[in-house]
Every structure is written in C-alpha cells, then in structure tokens.
Amino acid sequence: MPNGKGAAGAGEQKPVRRGKTANQRADAQRNRAKILAATPDALRKDPDASVADIAAEAGVGRMTLYGHFKTRAELIDATLVDGLDGAEAVLADVPLDGDPSEAFEALITSSWMLLERIRAVLVVAQRELQPARIREMHEKAEARMRGLLERGQREGAFRADLPVDWLLAVTHLTMNAAAEEVTAGQLDRDDAARVIVTTLHSAFAANDRA
C-alpha cells in the first residue's frame, strides 16, 4: 500500500508541475511581448533610452528584460524583427496585380504608415546594428517592391532607362526624407503619403504616362 500511495502521489504531482511550467512559460511570453511593444515607445521618447528605461516603459524589472535579451543591441534587433514581421503581414495583403502605378501607390501608402510605427527603432538600429543585418531584415519587403517595379517597366508604366536598383534607392530615400520632414514639423503627417507618391510617380512614370 505505501508503494501504491507513493506512486499515486507522484502521479498527482506531475500535472501540477506541468501546469506551473505552462504558467511560467505564458508569463514569460507575455513579458517578452510587453517589452517588444514598449521598446518603440521608449526609443521614440529617447533614442538613447537605457535598458532600465525600456524595462520601466514595459512595466517589468530590468532583470526580467535581461532574461529575454542579453544586450540592448539584441533587444533592438528583436524589436525591429517584430515590427517588420508585423509589417510583412500587412503588406502581403496589398494587391499588386492590375495597373502597376495603382499598385505602387497602394504599396507606398501602406509602407509609409508602417514605417511611421517603427521608424524610431529603425533609426536606432541603423546606428547600432550591422548594415548587412538590416538589409537581411528588409529582404522580403524589398523583393516585393522590386517585383512590382520590374513588372511596371515591362508593361510600360515605369521608365525603363533607369536601373531598378536606382528606383528602389530613390524610393527608400524619399520615404526617409518624408519621415525626417514630418519629425521636423515641415510636412504634415497626414499628407506625407500623397507627397511621397506624387514625387515618385513624377520621377518613375514612363514619358507617355507622365
């Protein structure tokens, strides 16, 4: 009988341990999500925000944050990945068939709104992470834009006398310039997408469609 009770007792404890582990895992996931959500806000307020500042913004202890991210750079990297993953989910639903110019306008408008959300993180990342790492993170978004520009050139919507790589570079520079103008108060945030689209359309449109 003692052995039977011992076996039963051991059997009763296992679900408790599993439940405790599951709760701990859920708590850890919630804390990680809170930290990733709070980091852009902290960096928007202060690009030099410390780990302690970010932890306070997230409502967690500094050691809790370090339990998920060993360094500030690792946290910046993870936050940018999280933001770009969320952006990718949105951009993947932007219809890119039909008229290339209309699809380009829709993609630029959506991309601008998403850039606004993660710009503070991107600015810090460009300062603290390797350029190759940032390019790697943007591969999907760049491939989507590249494919649209290439189709537009084939179909005569976009000028074909300039390399697609140059059109991509101009697109990125224009969007970043708009973001800087918005930050400086020189461009209305609600009008920025229209300004970007109008600027790029006039630069990219084939002569017979300009």
Automatic annotation (TrEMBL):
UniProt-recorded Gene Ontology molecular function terms: DNA-binding transcription factor activity; transcription cis-regulatory region binding
Region Disordered, annotated ranges: 1-40
InterPro entries: Homeodomain-like_sf (IPR009057), HTH-type_TetR-like_transc_reg (IPR050109), HTH_TetR (IPR001647), Tet_transcr_reg_TetR-rel_C_sf (IPR036271)
Stretches assigned to the HTH tetR-type domain: 29-87
DNA-binding region: 50-69
SUPFAM superfamilies: Homeodomain-like, Tetracyclin repressor-like, C-terminal domain
Keyword DNA-binding appears in the UniProt entry: yes
Pfam hit, one: TetR_N
Keywords linked to the UniProt accession: DNA-binding
Protein name: DNA-binding transcriptional regulator, AcrR family
Organism: Brevibacterium siliguriense
